[in-house]
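User: Show me a protein chain along with its predicted structure.
Assistant: Here is one chain, sequence first, then C-alpha cells.
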Amino acid sequence: MEGVTVSAFDEDRQKSTSVFSQADGSFAINGLRDAAHSVRARLMGQVDEWLEDVEVGMTDVSFKMQPATGRDLQNQRPDNSAFSMLKFDSIKDKENCKLMCTGCHQAGTVGFRTTGRLGDHDHANGRFRRSE
C-alpha cells in the first residue's frame, strides 16, 4: 500500500524516525541506532499497526493494514472536518464561531462533536445548531 507512514520509535532516546511507503508498499528506514524499535504503520482511513522489538537490519518487516471503522475512524478526523457540518443562521454567526469558539475548541475533535450538558454554551444559544 502506497503512502503509509512507517515510524520507528526509539523509546530509550525518545526519538522517532518516519518514512512513507512506496507504490509497491516497500519502505526503508535508514540511520537508526543499533537497538530494538517499536514500528508503527499509519494511514488515514486504516487502523494503526504496531510491531514491537524490531531489530535494525531486519528485512522481513511487513504490515497488513485493515480499514478503520466506527470510533477508530472518527478519531482520525482532522480538527477542521466537522466545521462544515455546523449550520449557521447568518455568515456573521459563522465568522463569530470561527473567531470565538474555534480559538479554544478544535472543531473536528470528538469532544467538539459530542453533545454537552444543557447550559454549557448558553453564550451561543440560538447562534448555531448542529445539522441533523
